[in-house]
Amino acid sequence: MDQATIDALKTSIEGLGKTHNEFKSTMATRDAEIAKHGKALGETEAKLSRLNDAMTGFDEVKTRIENMEIAIKRGTFTTDTKAVDAEKNAKLSKAFRGYFSHGAESKGLEYATLAAPEVKDMSVGSGPDGGYTVFPDLNGRMVRRIFESSPIRALANVTTISTDAIEGTTDLDDAGIEWPAETTAPTDAKTPKVGKWRVAIHEMATRPKITQKLLEDSAWDVESWLTTKVADRFARGEATAFVNGDGAGKPKGFMTYPAGTQWGQIEQVNSGDATKLTSDGLMTLYYSLKEQHRARATWGMARLTVAAVRLLKDSTGQFLWQPGLQMGQPSMLLGNPVREFADMPAVAANALAVVLADFAEGYQIADRLGMTVLRDPYSTKPMVEVYCRRRVGGDVVNFEAFKIGRVAA
After folding, report:
1. How far apart are CA 350 and CA 61, in angstroms?
2. Is 51 exposed, middle or buried, given 0-12, 13-18 or 19+ CB atoms closer than 10 A?
3. DSSP per residue over 18-50, as a string?
4. 308 near 276, Cβ under 8 Å?
5. Which residues, other chains included, contact 303 with Cβ-Cβ below 8 Å and sequence gap of 6+?
6. What is the pLDDT of residue 102?
7. Which residue did the predictor score with more confidence, 184 or 109?
8. Which residues, 6 or more positions from 168, have their beta carbon under 8 angstroms from its beta carbon?
9. CATH superfamily of this structure's domain 152-406
10. How far apart, in whole angstroms, are the C-alpha atoms of residue 191 and residue 170?
11. How far is residue 61 from each of residues 92, 130, 316, measured CA to CA in Å?
12. φ, ψ at 361 (rounded to 5°)
């Protein structure tokens, strides 16, 4: 509906209103006559009532036209007058302007009159609605996963060499003695012999890759972080080999030797029970080691095995376990320190769950070369290869210095 049509309707309504006013004036003047003519009064009053009803409808149309005119001036008018009238559009326009200027709590605003679908809040969850202005704080710490290992390097004998193997001698034999008579010369009944041990050097290596763009644009030193991770992995890898390595291209671990009491074998002592460790079994294991080795020996077992051992008591009801009394000092078991070996198996039937050893005498570690890092940006462009390698060896050199506890009856 255009402005011209509205103006025409307005003019017509005003004319009807003028006619109505004149009619009312005329009717007032003629009231006296109508009173005198009571016969025609009922009919006249009925006509007047109908006319008043019609004029009431015209008043509503006039009000609606005025509201539409206001809406057109504000730009909120819609031609679908059945869905949204001019008065509601005016209120919505006023409420939106007030809300965005002063907020919903401002006095006199009509924000509360808006229906839920008409309220368009700004929120973090939507980028265009304000989320682009909210940034996360990047100063949080890096959460690191802990990887357990076996501390054998801290206990064994460690030597740095300049070739691909280290060799030494073994004094395995004993001299013979006699008790000759006063006039009898002793004979050379037995002359001791010596042997030889050898620890070969093996190589560990890896070559992780990083894109050149990541190295250039990362907010922190990715290459330094990566080499640190590799160094830690090398340390744990060699510790695993010192315990369980088969000697094929890697160090040979003390757990891989056959059971026995001959040279080249490691004695295994049963726990006395088919499924668990016992205090009697640990006591037997303890005294199976010779006194000189026992004085320098350390217990090694997995973390959960330590938990089981802490519950054991001797025949008098005293706990075998003695907690460390000073900061940094290990706990004691039967007078010897206990260290957690992550590479030892848990307690189970036939598991080799405990080791008692004079590691410094019994196990030899040979370092040929610490970790070296070669940065190669050419071979696999646009990737940068970080080639890391380490050369190390390890083996048992004194088999009498080791005793292993087996979970068996």
Report:
1. 100
2. middle
3. HHHHHHHHHHHHTHHHHHH-GGGHHHHHHHHHH
4. yes
5. 148, 340, 342
6. 53
7. 184
8. 196, 197, 198, 364, 397
9. Major capsid protein gp5 (3.30.2400.10)
10. 15
11. 22, 44, 108
12. -90, -30
Q: How much is the CA Rg of the chain, to the nearest whole Å?
A: 50
Residues of the chain with CATH 3.30.2400.10: 152-406
Which one, of 306, 311, 307, 253, lies nearest residue 279 by Cα? 311
Q: List the structure tokens of 150.
A: 């076996």
Nearest Cα to 398, choosing from 287, 267, 285, 281? Answer: 267
Give dist(CA 208, CA 230) in Å, integer: 9
**Separation CA 123–CA 111 (nearest Å):** 18
Check pLDDT > 50 for residue 5: yes
What CA–CA distance (Å, rounded) separates 366 from 149?
Answer: 19
Could you tell me the two tokens for 404?
């292993």
Closest to 283 (Cα-Cα) out of 254, 255, 304, 312: 312
Q: What is the pLDDT of residues 306-362, one digit of tens each?
A: 999 999 988 888 888 888 766 777 899 999 999 999 999 999 999 999 999 999 999
Of 288, 258, 263, the C-alpha closest to 193 is: 263
Buried/exposed code over 252-291 (b: 16+ C-beta within 10 A; e: otherwise): bbbbebeeeeeeeebbbbbbbeeeebbbebbbbbbebbee
* Predicted local confidence at residue 111, as pLDDT: 46
Alpha-carbon gap, residue 74 to 89, rounded angstroms: 9
